[in-house]
Amino acid sequence: MLSDSIDPHYAIAGFLVGALVGVTGVGGGSLMTPILIVLFGVSPTTAVGTDLLFAAATKTIGSLVHGVNRTIDWQVVRRLAIGSILTTALALMVLSWLNMKTGSANHIVTAVLTFALLLTAGALIGRNKILGIYAQRIASLNERSIARLTIAMGAMLGILVTFSSVGAGAIGVTALVLLYPRLPMARIVGSDIAHAVPLTLIAGLGHGVMGSVDFHTLVLLLAGSLPGIFVGSSISARIPDRALRYVLAAVLIIVGSKLAVDLSVQPKTGVGVVRIAPTSQTGCSGGEADSTNAAAGAPRYSGSEFASSC
Asked: What pLDDT is recorded for position 224?
């Protein structure tokens, strides 16, 4: 799917999200996918697919920087990848099946995205409380149990990120802080970013094969995000981290609630009853949508479109 014209608003969105990522280290997928859906009317599956490749490109740059600074624990990355690569492939197969058999992929993606946004907001707000509750229990676990939990976390992230493009940032970092309390924060963030590169790349390429990536929009987003990341990184030391986390969490809760409302309405307005008209004398067959559905305000990404052919 390609955009019909160049829209500078995509580059502006990329700049703003890039600046936020530069300041906080999180928020890319959490904001970019909802922005594409809510503000630009992009279908949920296309928004997720486009954002996954956007994340793969931007996180590759971040991973290279962390690699040069030697702030990546490759053992942690391997454990996460063992869990995530398999579940990413399975999630892609499920999405493809849903898209071909039932046409409900957009509905499922919106539901998972809503859950992921609210979960990310909870991780941003309650990170310290979560650490205080579970830190002592996890500290008593042996190395084999830690490895298994890391693989399980990778598996969960594979499903969550493939369906929503959200989760590899705040959720992944919170989990790693719990599992590896002795690792410096820089190595935890670096390991999380390094793992996100193959995860988002594989998931994004899978979405691309299914045709749910807007490559033209992707280029515009990247063009805006790169200077945005530079600006955000430059001013990050001057902005309180805690205040930013709460602001970001509030935005995610608002957007997640908006998507939840849309989700509750979508089954009533997004699915129409189709009657097949008898074949005309010219050999053309036409589809006629139920008049009650035509009166409803379907979103721009409605999957109920069909064209007659002669």
From this structure: 87
Q: What is the pTM of this model?
A: 0.77
Who's near 120: CB < 8 A, 6+ residues apart? 26, 30, 166, 167, 169, 170, 171, 249, 252
- Give 230-239 pLDDT, tens digit per residue: 777 666 556 6
What confidence tier does 78 reach under pLDDT thresholds 50, 70, 90? Answer: very high
User: 198 in the Ramachandran plot: left (φ > 0), alpha (ψ -120 to 50) or beta?
Assistant: alpha
Q: Bridge-partner residues for 309, per DSSP?
A: 285
What is d(CA 20, CA 71) in angstroms, rounded to the nearest whole number? Answer: 21
CA-CA distance, 110 to 42, in Å (whole number)? 12
Instruction: Classify residue 278 by burial, with Cβ atoms within 10 Å: 0-12, 13-18, 19+.
Output: exposed
Beta bridge partners of 287: 276
How many angstroms separate the CA atoms of 22 and 194, rounded?
Answer: 16
Alpha-carbon gap, residue 66 to 53, rounded angstroms: 20
What is the token pair recorded at 134? 């579970």
